[in-house]
Amino acid sequence: MKFALTLAISLATAMPAIAQEAARPNILLVLLDDAGFMDFGAYGGDAATPNIDALADRGAMFSRYYTSPQCGPSRAMLMTGRDNHEVGVGSIPETLSPEMRQHPAYSMRWQDGLPTVASRLNEQGYQTFISGKWGIGDIGQNLPHRFGFDRSFVIDATGGSNYDHTPYLPLYKTTEWFEDGAPITLPEDFYSSEGIVDRMIDYLDDADPDKPFFSFVSFQAIHIPIQVAPEYRDRYAGRFDEGWEVMRKQRLDRAIQLGLVSERTELAPLPASSRDWEELNAEEQAYWARSMQVNAGMLESADHHLGRLLAHLEAQGKLDNTLVIVTSDNGPESRGVGDATGVQGLAVRSWMSQNGWNRDFETLGERNTMTFIGEEWASVSAAPFALFKFTATEGGLRVPLVIAGPDLPDTGLIEGRAHVTDLVPTMLDFAGIDPVAHDIRGRSLLPMLSGARPTVYGDDEAVGFEVSGSAALYRGNWKISRIPTPLGDGKWHMYDLSTDPGETTDLASARPELFQDILNEYLSYADEVGVVNVDATYNPFKQVAKNAMRKKAGEYWPRLLLAGLVLLTILFFSLRWVRRRLRP
């Protein structure tokens, strides 16, 4: 009798726990690569993104969400909730000088046991999966299976072909893919957006249906090389024929109509190096319009495959209990590969030819094509803001964020400030885990998502960012920023984002005391996290070229030495022959 009573009590207490476990929400984090602030349809973009838009319609979309202007640092913060320097990812490896690598904030290596959102959720009974781009630190050194992911299928690189292992930068011989930490070879019929979603569906199908999951889907879209099947590209025929100046103004008008920015917002001028659309000939206009068609088509394709995943979850009865977060790692990419002039351009185009890359108009966006949109279209993608990826402007830092999930109201547009480090505590909070920890910088956004509070940051609370000398600090509606050459002047400026999100009017000299106060906050932040101050001559793009030359010299020095010896031998015997001929 005593045993039966004990058993009954045990069962009675266990049943609520089991029910509670079954009711714990799933979490789906979706990351686009290099999508600009207005690229999603819900934000007024030109690409068709019905699945992302549907999430925005039943949830929330943020107008002031900030990330890092580089992919690796953004992803490091997205996974840890900490500043990128605090976890050794002060920049991406390609832009590091040898001097920077000597500092802990730029080690590009994670120590075992570093807490991530995956490990924290895993410890609380969540199954954890990632499929897609990882790209955090040195290749192969920080793979996700070491940091809390039960299953992982990842490309560990800043980018590469969407069809195979071909690299997009001369720094590398191949792009490396790993599954659960082991190198793998992609199938012949692989396409990134499709294959990434397929693998996640496989992981979810093999998962324990009685346990909640954390699923991180990290698309290669729309990082260069932008590639997609012709039918997606051709859907946008004629869409971009008006050119970048006209379409940038159209996006500003849409942003104001949607309430994304103030009516007083003005567009900053295009970079001095930008071309005038009307000065291009008809062939050039057709080429660059087609490039943007590929870009829009690739984003639509990613949305389509996301839709397959959402439909799969719905068919399993899991979507209604899943928190879905969709965002971008940084602003749009302005740089290209193969468009440089001079000796560097010749070297890069020679490398492209050897690796099968082309930039042909007819097949633009298809396999083996090195397609990119350039700085002019990147300025459209980032509109109504200034500049783009790699810079601490609004165009580089402010990106779309859509969140929808169970028990969350249809909040609509949220204007309160939010940061990439906030997503870890938000996911933990939603899972019923304490979001406050000594090693997490961010704050849960649930009070904003529930409508309880308009913001989680006070007007006197600041958050800083820095990569490769490009830096910013936000405090209320104020922002200070420094953009190094060639896109900036390397000096600090201050803007009031409530009226000037286009960053057209520098108020540093008009409000010197306020400016100095905010600058002091940035200096304290930089000292705290270990930012290395780069000198005025540092240029991240030139550093990539230097690192490529250094690496290639290391790979080919035996051949170069042999060629030099052969040349010296030929010269030696040639001189001897000439001397003999000249003797009387």
Low-pLDDT runs: 1-22
Strand content: 5-15%
The N- to C-terminal Cα distance equals 126 Å
Radius of gyration: 26 Å
Share of helical residues: 25-40%
The average pLDDT value, as a whole number, equals 91
| Widest sheet, order of strands | 7-6-5-4-8-1-9-10-2-11
Supply the number of helical segments: 15
Task: Characterize the largest beta sheet: strand count, sense, and whether it forms a barrel.
Answer: 10 strands, mixed
Q: Please give the number of β-strands.
A: 16
Q: Give the oligomeric state.
A: single chain
Structure write-up:
The protein has helices at about 1-25, 50-60, 70-80, 115-125, 190-205, 230-235, 245-255, 280-315, 340-355, 375-380, 395, 425-430, 445-450, 510-530, 540-580; strands at about 25-30, 60, 65, 125-135, 150-155, 175-180, 180-185, 215-220, 320-330, 400-405, 410-415, 420, 460-465, 470-475, 480, 490-495. With about 575 residues, the chain is an alpha/beta fold. Strands 7-6-5-4-8-1-9-10-2-11 form a 10-stranded mixed β-sheet, with helices on both faces. Strand 13 (about 460-465) and strand 14 form a beta hairpin. The longest helix has about 45 residues, at about 540-580. It starts with a helix and ends with a helix. Mean pLDDT is about 90; it is low at about 1-20.
